[in-house]
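Per reviewer request, we include the raw input and output of the structure prediction for the construct analysed in the revised manuscript.
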Amino acid sequence: MLELYSYFRSSAAYRVRIALGLKGLDYRVVPVHLLRHGGEQLGEDYRRRNPEGLVPALDEGGRILTQSLAIMEYLDETHAPATLLPADAAGRARVRALALHIACDIHPLNNLRVLRWLAHELKVESSARDDWYRHWVELGFRSLEAQLRSPGTGRCCHGDEPGLADCCLVPQVYNARRYDVDLSVYPTIARIAAYCESLPAFQAARPDAQPDAE
């Protein structure tokens, strides 16, 4: 069985959990607590699996895969039918662009290790740190909202079936809510997220549904 090294609130792990659900794949969660004992992801045992010291990592019979987008594309390529990316090249480019916008432009500026650096190393007050978080999410969401106001968008980021971009969008929306980002000014993002969150694969992947949820 596939084993997913995951932390319940990790956006990157959340993405992969959604993708596994959309693909209908059985897997076992191996919790990696990002805060306990200074961060279990930084321990020697976990770093043997993933030298980056990040989650997720996916173990497929001893083959270790890292980086959420690479994992999701691997799953789509190796477990038919391929459903996370469109069949046409232009559609695939659009979906990848949306996914990368979230995973590479928005998320890295507000993930846990950045927030902890701001708090513990730079001694940034919690209110200023939260302002930092909201600034970068809102900046990213403004351009993402504009990109999604496109004929290519349907009930989901691309068409009417959830795919790679939706796997990235929903975790970022979940985090935005945690930091009180006003989603009403991003109606397309909010609409897509609400639809996706009604689907079983997204519900099963929610942080509060995970075995390590606190």
